[in-house]
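== Polypeptide entry ==
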Amino acid sequence: MAARPSFPSSGSVRLIAAAGCAALSVLLVACSKPVPTEEPVRAVKVVTVGVQNIQSGAEFAGEVRARVESRLGFRVAGKIIQRPVDAGQRVKAGQLLAQLDAQDYRLAADAARAQVAAAATNRNLADADYKRFKELKDQNFISGAEVERRDTTLKAAQAQLDQAQAQLSSQRNQAAYTNLLADVSGVVVAVEAERGQVVAAGTTVFRIAQDGPRDVVFAVPEDRVAMVKIGAPVAVRTWSAGAALKGTVREVAASADPVTRTYQVKVALDARDARDAPALGATVYVSPQVFARSGMQVIKLPTSALKQDGKTTAVWVLDPASMTVRSQPVEVPTADGNDAVIASGLAPGMLVVVAGVHVLQAGQKVTIYKEKPAVDPDNKAQSAIDTLAPAAPAAPGAGAAVAAPKPARPASR
């Protein structure tokens, strides 16, 4: 008999159809485009724009100095052999500050002294000669011309003696100049030469701040120096203690510093405040009242609200109706402490984002961030303990029966 052809069973046909459907669905899923993810709704902090009073003004760093500061140096050249005074030491008028090697000047004084002795001998000899010829003239033994000649010789000898004595005085002064003495009382603020150094005549060795009035010195930029006038009131605040002092502008430099291009301004402290002035060299804060801006109505925002939009400064403004943000250019002319002063671009009542400005996009939906209430650490710790710790079982014999554990039944198959 001929063999019958074999056909797949109905169950095999169902499996093949199911496999084909699964492969087709996988192929369709692979070819379809992915669903774009929605931009998350970010929570931002906002402030309501309002008008506030500006508080700060221009403040500069100043230094307390003596009104008169002397630069002392030797009047002769030489090698320093002694310097008993150091910087910061208080000195009195006439006190020895430094000393030069005076050996050469003492030798020069000795030479001048010998010249004086020689000139005095010549003068005495000429004087005796003149007297003798004067007596002979009185007796008509000689002519008057001889007496006049002896008189001229005496006058020349006297002039040589005067010259020698002047040179001796000069050499004595030179020797005395090898001792540098303080001509005023004050504080040594700088020492510019050391022992063993050879200095020229006039070289500054010490700088002494004289006792008396004190000044506060600070620098003003070129664009503001025209506003500073002599006699203008100035508030001075010490850096460490914060004590307030009063002063007036005493001097404004006529030319700018060649390095910093700023103008030096000196402020004279009041007579009562000068007695309680800070130490020399102390740093103080100087606030000229001409730069004070207290009472001006301006719009201020935290600096965290600003962002750079190309070449302009901008902020994110929130639209309460759609809860979306938009970029708003603003103009920032100056700052008031840690806040930026807004000159244009905003109006009172606007909502401005002050945190998270660098992760936002124009038209993005946002929500207003609300701070969570603070939780007491003690209560939080106690709640955690109560949650994690299980209830302790009752002790046997305390009136509660302890149930014996039941044996586990074997799992039925």
